[in-house]
User: Fold these one by one.
Assistant:
Number 1:
Amino acid sequence: MSDANSDDDWPPQIERRDFLFVSTGMMAAVGTAVAVWPFIDAMNPSADVQALATTEVDLEPIAAGQRITVIWRSQPVFIERRTPEQVAQAKADDDSPDLIDPATDASRVKSEEWLVVVGVCTHLGCVPLGQREGDERGEWGGWFCPCHGSHYDTSGRIRRGPAPRNLVVPPYELRDDGTVLIG
Amino acid sequence: MKNLVVKLGAAAIAATVMATGAWAASAYPKNKPREQDWSFAGPFGMYDQAQLQRGLKIYAENCSACHALSRVNFRNLADLGYSDEQIKAFAANYEVEDGPDDFGDMFFRPATAADAFPSPFPNKEAARAANGGAYPPDLSLIAKARAPIRGFPAFVIDPFRNYAENGPDYIYSLLTGYKDEVPEDVSVPEGLWYNPYFASGTALAMAPPLFEGMHEFDDGTEATVSNMAKDVAAFLMWTAEPHMDERKQLGFRVMVFLLIFAALLYLSKKQVWARVEH
Amino acid sequence: MSKLEHHGTYTPTSGVGKWIDARMPLPRLMYDSFVAYPVPRNLNYAYTFGGILSIFLVIQIVTGIVLAMHYVPDATKAFDSVEHIMRDVNSGWLMRYMHQNGAHFFFLAVYLHIFRGLYYGSYKAPRELLWILGCIIYLLMMATAFMGYVLPWGQMSFWGATVITGFFTAFPVIGVPIQELLLGGFAVGDPTLNRFFSLHYLLPFMIAGVVILHVWALHVTGQTNPTGIEVKSKTDTVPFTPYATIKDAFALILFLALYAYFVFYMPNFLGHADNYIPADPMVTPAHIVPEWYFLPFYAILRAITFDIGPITAKLGGVIAMFSAVLVLFVVPWLDTSKVRSAVYRPWYKLAFWLFVINSVFLGWLGSQPAEGVYVALAQLSTAIYFGFFLIVMPVLGLVEKPRRLPNSITEAVLERSAKTGGGSPQLGDATASADKS
């Protein structure tokens, strides 16, 4: 019996069963890894947040040259009924060499009259100025971000400053009944 | 000495079980809820979508006149098998208050999928005033909030047979349990309805809400009081516990994993201890 | 004790390992504490609950942190936010049910752990501090569980908070000011909820801190074992890893399987239906009953229905209830027996099981209305509860004649296996084993 063991050879060697030990270890590792997911997933946007991911806006009351701000997914969206001059200016700059993120005006709108962009500066997320009367609109008559001085033009394109990309165009749909569905 | 574990375990489980379960010395409900067969009973039980749809119809056309369902959003009805378009159309039947608008006024608009079921009364006080002083409770959680104590010994047995449907059993029993003949030893206050299945008294303010043939169901289910009570009870179980299907499905995977893991650990443990008497 | 010293066998092999070891030998501490640490070879499954408890502390903290990301401690929003977690948050229902049922299983494990300690005399010298630290953890757990139960702001939450903070009004003069201090108002309300949330978040980390002290104290004295005989030679022990680790892991997974069964299949079985009704300060539920793990103490509270001199029944109940917990702290000095384990103490063993049954019975009484025969039974049961600690423990130690003790753990193990026909058949002598491997 094992009382024959002296202190020196105690405890006795464990007979190795690699397959058993490895598969047990794998179970532990896989189980732990899988169990972590729900904890992380719980931080993702919840069902009620997801459900508010579309916004519907009536465009009727907006006059030419007027800008409004609506909320979509808790972020401001700028909607502008552009004047023909603003459209012309935006188009004229399509090939301008100072476009940091080149894009034609046509590629950024669904109807020339309506510009819909997410009102969040692509630099570090501030809300650019230009929505209200008297706001600084930047050198190109679009928007101006006060945080770090980014200038956007009348098509929402970045023209000068640290922002790397044009103001984002959200997915939207202009409907026949004069409303826009964002999201 | 290993017996100690078994004994301690048994004592502890008995303690848990007796202690929580057995306090029901309460006088009500006079009659215990009658147990029904539910599609969602047991470890593999799932909701029956057709039944939930019938339950929704009954809620929407009867119960909603007095009872709110404010924790359920129209979008949740996707669980019942409705498409986005159907849900949108259904929601549009309801008006919800929104605002304030640009002039500071509140206004009503058709509900969208993201809205909750609007409540029939603006607040508790209004609900009471309109119902002779009795507040018709919000039904969102009612299947979990009205689960009469099972008492001893049912309580001990329940975990072994996985019985967790005393909520819907209660609702079913209440809805089908109105009695015209009141026993002599019971006095029913004026304006109340005798029901021996009611959890907090002999009688309640709600008149019997279901009548034979009051609905027509598209799937041809006969509109007996019993059928309708069952459907609406199942629906209310869903409103109280919308993730039950998901919970049981995940539970099955977790249990299988744990049992296989336990078996492997047992074998490994035997192997490790093979040469050490203990 | 010198033979116990497996310590110091840690030898870092990599360069990084040596670099760290020379600067802050945390890996060495871990190795010595959880790998080389010698544990008695005869520990049974009753000794696995310490490990299980530490895992449950982790489960509660981790699920709690996620829940706190979505919970709103505001009297008008708390209930809604919990329902938001249950319905809309991804895996929210899982987090909530794990946390809620985790509390029940945490207490189940802690009671088994405490009973094990009482049975095997784990509190006796030199482990008094270890035991007292454990009692402190238990107290903190009770406070944490109580405050956590208030957070969902259901009917039971609200009225439980009202009743329990009402205990303090039993104390003359200072009682009411203390209650108002606890509540932050004249009744349970928004300030109460906010401070309970704050403390419910804080206390688990205090528990974790005391757990570290508890484990530290354990590693100084070493584990007890079912024989109650101290470790005398190296063959009395096995290294913690892999022997105890694998056994603890097996027990843990079985316990988790039981826990998972409740989380996934009967998540509301251990709770109260009334707590799915939002708190209403104007309507008290018909039966206010604490969670099962407090029921024995609740029974003791209500058993004192008579004035004792200047002490009113209300104050007497509160004192009895607190004493029922506090008496655990002095157990090491109440037990006068020279023999540690109940295995060799036939009368104590009997008394212990009666105590267990009585505790269960007290729990049952706690769930009954405090009227009629239940009051008398609760008084009797309370007397037995205190009698076990204050009379049986000191007296039995002096009068009881213990059974013959084996000379060592190894001898006890071998004696037993000889009696039961010898353990595993493949057991050869040491040489044979060495050959095989």
Number 2:
Amino acid sequence: MTATTTITSSESESATDRRPQPKRLNVGRLITWFGLAIGTVAMFFPIYWLIVTAFIPNSDAIARDVDLLPDRLTNENFSDGWSDFQWTRWYRNSIFITVMRVGITVPINLLAGYTFAKFAFRGSKTLFFVIIATLTLPIQVILVPRFLIVNELGLVDSPWGVILPFAAEAFGIFFVRQFMVSIPDEILEAARIDGASEFRIFREIVVPLSKPAIGVLTILTFLWTWNNFAWPLVVLTSQENYTVTLGLNAMQGFNNTEWSPIMAMATLSLIPVLLVFLLFQKYFVQGIARTGIK
Amino acid sequence: MTTVVPTRTPSTSKPPSERARSRRRNLTPYLFLTPNLIVFTVFVFAPLVFAVWMSFHKWDTISPAEWVGFSNFTELLGDKLFWESLKNTFIFGILTVPTSLVLGLIAALGLNQKLPGRVFMRTIYFLPFVVSSVVIGTLGSWVFNDTYGIINATLDQIGLGEVSWLTDPNLAMITLSITTVWARLGFCMIVYLAALQTIPPEYLEASTVDGSTPWQTFRYITLPLLMPATFLLAVLNIIYSFEAFDLVFVMTGGGPGNSTTVLPVYAFDTAFQVRRFGYANAIGLVLMVIIMIITLIQWRVTRQDDIVV
């Protein structure tokens, strides 16, 4: 089968035109491209407007004249927004919670995923099913009792009250299991014959083989923790213990017309997430394509 | 007595020596699962049992709990706000799920072609996926702001008149849905793109050679092959929509009036504003049962053992 490079009109479906995506310019492709481009602009515009609002004086932001390319720019919103609230604390809290959560969740989910992938033990199927079923469990069902348990443990208003309840989660276990199933048993058996302990096999053979899965898991765990809202809203009661998302929400409640400082702080909160996203885009796409889970 | 056998695919009967080795590893799987099981038990399974218990009690955590039988559930039947929240939940699902799927599919079909700039475009479509729902909600409140928002300012300038995006009870749900679809479309696109890439090009070529139009090829070849992806996305999106809390809470708080009060918001308010814990759990359990039914339907239809979700 030879690739066709005919520059014919789009209508003719000649026998040589077998490639589904012929490399030729035609009206259909042009329309498709324009449609997608308009969609791209529409998708990006809100983010663009978020950033623009962050950089213009608030008086201009609420002036109601539509200026898509403003030339009066300022960084006052960032300094004002930052100093009017406890952002330094809120960032410190968010970073602490995110680092601890990733540091705990990733290793214990790797262990559990590995166990479900490579050991058949009594009750493994049932247990795996029950854990996966929690993926569909709405948080509202367990919100109150979980809060009361966290309260009993003395973790209300503590970062650990946010970190621990999410330390184990079904998605990670499911994802790791799907990945590790394809690790050849022969390698593990060989190590066992050599007398390696089970934990050593996990640490020195399984973990190095699972770097792509660890990458996906780390990035998604980071993203979910950084963006988490409903649970911290319940657990973190005093403002000094807020996370960045709670801070943004609180800021919106405080001043209803100071939009530019709010957008400045929203822009700042996006930076870590966007950086990770742009650097590790492949992992995101892989993670989603493999499992289809958010 | 527990037995441990290393999984092999396909599993075969083990020689005796191997069985002896595996007995040595009897405890290993349980040991490896311990940290997870502790967290799951304390923070998921115990709360779930606790939730069921609470829904049969009247309890505000201060005075002792009082067994009330099914009265929380029977009270739901006569609770107007509950029915309104349930209705709003379904409306929100109907407004968001098909739209996200169709737009995601269109974007995927377009961006599956070799077009200039497609990698960049894919990135932009997918971008909202990583933005937190609080930022999305804040941004939505700003863009759709009745007085200062860019959309109303633009409508005003071109003489079309302003729209009460967030203060008109009939419109607030639509505004929320537009924002939600914007946020979720990229996710649907990625799943569809992955599915499209598994379709062997020969199928499409054969169809073209046989003289079908691009539409016929899409309708009779591509679309049926995308069914598993569509089904998965439908279920996931229904679950997301039914569990939507963050965005609604930030953008409308359930208002104006109760026009955007969905079940999760109602459950949250009942628990943490009114402090009626038992009743809040009854609402949560109704939500759980609805989602369980949807998930079970999915299992029955797809019958895939391995890909559980």
Number 3:
Amino acid sequence: MRHVGAIAGRELKSLFVSPVAYVVLTLFAVLAGFFFLASVLSFDSNVAQAQQFQAFDFLRELNLNDHLIAPFFQVMWIVILFLVPGITMGLFAAEKANGTQELLLTSPITIWELVIGKYLAAAVFVILLIAVLGLFAGIVFLYGEPEVAKTLSGLLGLLLVSLTYAAVGAFASSVTRNQLIAFFLALVLLLILWLLSVVADLGAAGGAVTTNSTVSQILRYLSSADRFEQMVQGLVDTRDLAYFGFMIGIFLLLAKASVESVRWR
Amino acid sequence: MIEARGISKRYGDLLAVDNVSFSAESGDVIGFLGPNGAGKTTTMRILTGFIPASDGTAQIAGHDIFEDPLAARRAVGYLPEVPPLYPEMDVVGYLRYVATLKDVPRSKRKAAVERAVERCGLEEVHRRVIGSLSRGYRQRVGLAQAIVHNPSVLILDEPTVGLDPIQVREIRALIADLTSAEQAEGARTVVLSTHILAEVEAICRRVILINAGRKVVDSPLAELTQGGKRLEDIFARATTADDAAGPREEEG
């Protein structure tokens, strides 16, 4: 595993000399700012309306975690879903297009070192994105008193979801030499992953499957949506942590097999 | 040294390399000749560990490419047909990265990179970004990449393809210089594929000619050209003899 650091370091440097990293970071910061402002304004108007109609029960219920931070995180989750493929699209596809794959596969490194090195670079970038969101959440702490644990649980949820998406993106990048195809393939996979629970709900509503049927349960298990929701609500369950670890492992395993497949042909 | 025993490569029904065996000692400079699609690139890719052979095996510097692939790869320097460069990296940064991948110990990395830069005449551009270099210089960086870890086997796949005549002359001189210097050290085996016969005459001591995946000639250059025989005629005779049965393979 001693080549992992070198591979990850080179990948990160490459990301930051290409426009991709800056485009993604700028877009992310601008969208985060916009949606944060929108969440604050919406919270403000909620308070104003509740006061105007003297809805004291609602006012008591209203809090910064559930009505400001959680909606903000939920929107940013969608933003991340669209941006992570942009970070991961080049991981393996660019090596194939450059011809540098031939250098890597004729060097005394293992394919696991390569895959983990690449993934690590994407993970560092993802952590950077979540840190930006942490700053926005920090602003709320300057002016109010949201619960720390609940906020951190939400951030952890976002981080785990993003790391899972990065693994999916790494796999998508490993099956093609074209970065654009890698981007859209990752996006399609992520949307499918996201919509699995919706599919389960629809099936149940349409009577095709009951909520407790095996199919529905499997779909629900694979979907990241419900788990993320729970973490935003402040529920950190070891089963959910295991789920994210499982998904990351599966997709890195697929990426490894895909990189290795040049040797089978 | 290289010891190839019965290497074959099948792509479905197509036999790209058919039972090729040869051995090369330290100090050998071998011209790997053959028409396009003869199986040169495939054979080299097998020797470098990029793809496995369907049959047969090879030893690189005493390490079996199947049983001890990492040690075998450590002993090989390889310049593929398209030099494996990162256009956004500078020359020194790139060579240092390759040295790390090739297991050059940390304490020796700087010296190894300096040596490769000097040997390949890259001093003037060593801080330049690779993407801004001319093709001739990129090819030099490709060569530097192949020798940075001082491998005992050097494999070069069509090192002068796509260059202009002056760059071809420069690269050829550089390879001749590298190989003759290696000769003095007596420690390296060089295999160079090409279909340019003048290149073989300028650089190589020994010729292996493969056609349709099979080895048809393996002999010292001096013996082949004895009595004023021309390499071109030998090439033409060897490659047309059984051309009808020859499979075709996409190079690159």
Number 4:
Amino acid sequence: MAPKLAVWKFASCDGCQLTLLDCEDELLTLAGEVEIAHFLEASSAVTEGPYDVSLVEGSISTPADAERIKEVRRISRRLVTIGACATAGGIQALRNFADVEEYRSVVYARPEYVATLAESTPISAHVPVDFELRGCPIDRGQLLEVLSAYLAGRRPGIPNHPVCFECKMRGNVCVMVAHGTPCLGPVTHTGCGAICPAYGRGCYGCFGPSARPNTGSLKTWLGDIGLARPEMDRMFATFNVTAFTEVPDDPPA
Amino acid sequence: MTHRHERTLNIGALARVEGEGAMQVRVAGDRVEEILLNIYEPPRFFEAFLRGRAYTEPPDITSRICGICPVAYQMSACRAVESACGVAVDGPLGDLRRLMYCGEWISSHALHIYLLHAPDFLGYPSAVEMARAYRPLVERGLELKKTGNAIIELLGGRAIHPVNVRVGGFHRVPTPRELRGLVPGLRRALEDALATVRWVAGFDFPDLTFDHEFLALTGEEYPLERGTPRTTTGAAFEVADFEDEVAEYQVPHSTALHSRLVHGGRYLTGPLARFALNRDRLSPLAHEAAADAGLGHECRNPFQSIVVRAVEIVHAVEEALRVIASYEPPPPYVPVRARAGRGHGATEAPRGLLYHRYDLDGEGLLTSARIVPPTSQNQAAIEEDLRRLVQDRLDLDDAALTSACERTIRSYDPCISCAAHFLDLKVVRS
């Protein structure tokens, strides 16, 4: 019997699950290898669990979702989180550093109608996760690699070095050295293909921290090319704000 | 003769829509008492955390509201910031923006037509199931979607949350040679788009006519990245007056705010509205395809929106080819210096008018933000259409009625992630 694939959504923009539908050349082949058993964005037919692989998009930000993710874990053999919301809480985790009551009253005239938690947290803060796929959004090639790996019963081959490696391999000129453009490439997890430097802008960290990031050193560099502290803080406070906040400024041991 | 029995129909988690929502219908006897489009997608508070961010950041940040139409968010955000700073980005840079937007229309409309909506007409739960019987058709849809994405990938770096858009223009503009590389795919897409119009025009459409007002941008061209808001009753207003003309209000059953026209009432934005207000500005082949498909001056059956979307793909492909043919690379961006003030931006997302408003302080930091996405504007109209649909079909059993409601909702291509939050359909009959 074909393995059962499920896709789940929590607080998110839908972009990471859309990445699956953006595999235009592979989608129908994939559908021949797995049973797409639960994927509401793509199908109104739902097969009951348990599921062999669950892809989970989005962060936990409401009391109901904090319960729902436990049920998803219970019926999933492998649970893979996809994207910055699921792996780090997403940009909506900016509330973790603010007063959520004040946020609620800014957006909604009747805040009492809206249920929310004070913090937006990654899936791993609630249930055990088998693999985390980074990115805002995730990379199509990396998604196919993770699915192929689980279908073949091996570990996904996803490197965790910084974007700089990919950037050099792509043959880009270093935007920070050559042009003084602030870039988070030295501390950001690889996977996007170093798109931003290829388009002449600095990396803005949408894949979150790489393994052993030396953010302290990078901050010194950013200061040296004239970046003021508030601007530097904003650079790290976007789609992976919680993950970058947890990185100490001391050099990695 | 009264059967004063109560019926409640619940649809939990609507499928083939973007985001999370539900619907509840309450029927007492022979009267629909209440229809609630329950958008329960968790709030993410973009308007709150945008405060204190730099004026250069809204394009990257607001694109994360929606993975299906990130280009729309980037375009409305840029226009709003630029208007606050007194800069207009038109000419060749405006054309490049329109080209990128064409990519998003092609991709998003092909997604909706082939993967989300067509399975309803052919009786399948998904495009993957549909592909078992109609593989070449589904492949044509995927190919169209890919062609749209190829435009966004070239101009934006990637299809979802593109990285190359900045306030003032782009970080880097393509070479003419790079753009010409898109032409063979677009020529094939033009044939495929015309075939799509012929295909969907032959579907069997349920009978439902609504009387909402339409709201869309209008101007010299069929509206994408710019235009002046206008309604079918003739009233036009400046983008800067949007918040005086459109009132947002909150309902208990939705995390998306509803909208109504201050001088009208509920209204609809999106493909049907654009078509009704701009039909004569369609590209030549799109105009002809619309006529051949039997679309009159306007279309007021929500199920037929699939035909209008197909016509808009034809337009977007032709427009893309036109921009590429006359392309000469401009400087990548116009410098935009921050200044204190308020700016407004409105563009036509695939699902309808998307409005952004920002206030900047003298340092170029945002002090407030307002974003009005198309799906939240359409909620009241969708609820009204469901009310009429259910009222006319009370003799149907719960399963048939629920399925009819789901199909109706799907025909609007609601983007619940945009609106704030998705659908659990409930029908309560008493």
